[in-house]
Amino acid sequence: MSVRFRCVVGFLATFLLLGCGGRVNSEPTQDKQALLAFINQTPHANRVQWNNSVSACSWVGVRCDGNQSYVQSLHLPGVGLVGPIPPNTLGRLSQLRVLSLRSNKLTGSVPPDFANMTVLRNLYLQDNELSGAFPPALTLLARLNRLDLSSNNFTGSIPFAVNNLTQLTGLFLQNNEFSGALPSISSGKLQSFNVSNNKLNGSIPASLAKFPSSAFTGNLDLCGGPLRSCNPFFPSPAPAPVTPPIVPAHKKSKKLSTAAIIAIVVGSILGFCLLLLILLLCLRKHRRQHSPKSPKPPVTAARSVAVAEAGTSSSKDDITGASTEAERNKLVFFNGGIYSFDLEDLLRASAEVLGKGSVGTSYKAVLEEGTTVVVKRLKDVVVTKKEFDMQMEVLGKIKHENVVPLRAFYFSKDEKLLVYDYMTAGSLSVLLHGSRGSGRTPLDWDNRMRIALSAARGLAHLHVAGKVVHGNIKSSNILLRPDHDATVSDFGLNPLFGTSTPPNRVAGYRAPEVVETRKVTFKSDVYSFGVLLLELLTGKAPNQASLGEEGIDLPRWVQSVVREEWTAEVFDVELMRYQNIEEEMVQLLQIAMACVSTVPDQRPGMQEVVRMIEDMNRAETDDGLRQSSDDPSKGSDGHTPPQGSRTPPSVTPTP
Ligand SMILES: *[C@@H]1O[C@H](CO)[C@@H](O)[C@H](O)[C@H]1NC(C)=O
Ligand SMILES: *[C@@H]1O[C@H](CO)[C@@H](O)[C@H](O)[C@H]1NC(C)=O
Ligand SMILES: *[C@@H]1O[C@H](CO)[C@@H](O)[C@H](O)[C@H]1NC(C)=O
Ligand SMILES: *[C@@H]1O[C@H](CO)[C@@H](O)[C@H](O)[C@H]1NC(C)=O
Ligand SMILES: *[C@@H]1O[C@H](CO)[C@@H](O)[C@H](O)[C@H]1NC(C)=O
Ligand SMILES: *[C@@H]1O[C@H](CO)[C@@H](O)[C@H](O)[C@H]1NC(C)=O
Ligand SMILES: *[C@@H]1O[C@H](CO)[C@@H](O)[C@H](O)[C@H]1NC(C)=O
């Protein structure tokens, strides 16, 4: 009795924790006050509409930790912030890791309370109108990795105290008014450094000489290192190929011969002239490239994807003359989004290919500031920009916890990009079929049920509230949250491709009528969902050649097996170790079979499917918590198929 009670309580607790934990409306009250104090004192564009009555963790640009107990990052690039950063606001975000206020119109100096953000790792203040001396507060942020103050109006000298920042990997101070000599910065971790276009003078310290000349150019009077020598007698720049002095081999004298001196001088002058010539040519070329001010977003996008395509994780720090305001605006965000980045950020992101699908290639893009998103690069889009925009409008409105939100899109002649949330737990396809039999944890029955139900809910929401046909239901488009709640992705894209869609698209999930008409409908979605349920039950991927059963038609196969009364043989071997699940498996099988009816009208609607699965679940909770057979604590009387055995379970035909 008490065991059973504890089980139920335990189950409820687990359910609450897993099912709702992530969405509990806890929030960092103090951090929220600090954010509000900041935004209320800083004029800004409409895009930042922080609603006082919802959790700060859901605000544009705000990211919290897993417990929602503090604000972890704040990204407000290019949101039209104007004026000075109000003191004692942002400095109160004591747990902040990343702060980006770049590309705004912030003025004045950086407030001293920034020193209180002691765990700050990345600070991006570039491209503002900040002024004053190098902010002393920043030299106290011992954990800083990247500090970007470039393209502001900072003056004075660069303090030696930057040496306090021992974790610094990137320091960007270019395009300011810094003057005086460069301090010796000896942080061993420094990989990126730029002080070009300031008013610095004096010699480049040896510790910085390893950086290229473009990191130093455009200053008042810097010398040494990669630039010209500081020695007034040999004003030849180091990189110029100085002809080695022709010293006659037999002369061992340490003094240089007259000929050698002449050779050096002539060589130096020649080298200098050569460099001057190259410089002139470069300048001219540069000017020619930049004079026609035509924004080229396709190039930018193509480049970002080219980076991704190469599969390298590049993190370019500076793309010269990259983006104009016009380009930036072309990445269209939907209202209520949590992201705040632009095309330029995507361009700089490191990207890896997640998968190549029939509609295009997906990339996981990790933005410089730490945000991870999925960028889908569509191919063979046939619709016009207007039609595209209209469909995006429809898709962008869809909000449901079991639907992967579309956050932004980009349309140009050559590139069509969609930006989605990144789901950390991967796809059902990988979970179900990835490295089978090689010691991975099989997906247990409770989680399969959870996935079936949550995916059904997501799809039903698409159909009923969104009035959108998904059109591409398959296990690789069911993405999982860490708690195994499923979300459906890649919905509603068919209208973009016309009817000439490649025939190879997800053949195994395709309803029979779609093969002929090439038109997807709500009912064809239901069919595909039925195949997905069969996949969950059988552990077999439809039409997956790698299974050795090339081109199996899952519904037909299941039908044939069930007809022969071998029902137990249908189910995934991996499910045989769980107890008391046969009845549910059979019930779910019946729902799946209803969904894959050949005649569309005989298939249930998605909402009905949800209801049927929910009804199953209700019966299940009465039974208490189900356990794996290696766990003896269960309060039920069901029979126990021995592990790995394929005893036919009692297949009671359910009404
Ligand atoms: C703020 O959020 C509440 C609750 O979601 C909503 O009722 C209200 O309309 C929102 N206010 C604004 C200004 O968006
Ligand atoms: C959440 O809070 C608990 C207890 O306060 C703590 O043990 C845990 O580490 C926190 N988790 C995260 C992700 O911060
Ligand atoms: C930092 O925070 C402490 C209290 O936590 C406060 O007394 C101090 O004034 C703050 N420092 C700055 C520079 O604002
Ligand atoms: C930068 O400061 C100088 C004087 O200190 C001022 O003349 C100039 O307008 C400022 N530039 C910007 C972009 O604020
Ligand atoms: C550098 O750090 C030390 C301790 O880490 C501190 O005492 C000193 O004041 C810092 N210097 C500056 C100029 O910030
Ligand atoms: C750098 O410029 C300042 C004035 O701007 C001058 O006082 C100083 O002597 C210069 N240093 C060198 C090494 O030229
Ligand atoms: C430094 O910044 C300047 C100006 O933005 C840029 O032209 C140059 O390529 C940069 N150099 C390096 C090494 O980043």
Textual characterization of the structure:
It is a single chain. By secondary structure, the chain is α/β, with parallel strands linked by helices. The protein has three domains: about 10-225, Alpha-Beta Horseshoe (Leucine-rich repeat, LRR (right-handed beta-alpha superhelix)), CATH 3.80.10.10; about 305-420, 2-Layer Sandwich (Phosphorylase Kinase, domain 1); about 430-615, Orthogonal Bundle (Transferase(Phosphotransferase), domain 1), CATH 1.10.510.10. It contains 15 helices and 22 strands. Strands 1-2-4-6-8-10-12 form a seven-stranded mixed beta sheet, with no helix packed on it. The protein has a seven-stranded parallel beta sheet with strand order 3-5-7-9-11-13-14, with no helix packed on it. A six-stranded antiparallel beta sheet has the order 15-19-20-18-17-16, sandwiched between helices. A hairpin with a 4-residue loop joins strand 19 (about 405-410) and strand 20. Helix 11 packs antiparallel against helix 14. The longest helix has about 35 residues, at about 260-290. The two termini are about 30 Å apart. Mean pLDDT is about 75; it is low at about 1-25, about 235-260, about 285-330, about 545-550 and about 620-655. Bound molecules: 2-acetamido-2-deoxy-beta-D-glucopyranose (7 copies). One 2-acetamido-2-deoxy-beta-D-glucopyranose (NAG) binds near residues 196, 212, 214 and 215.
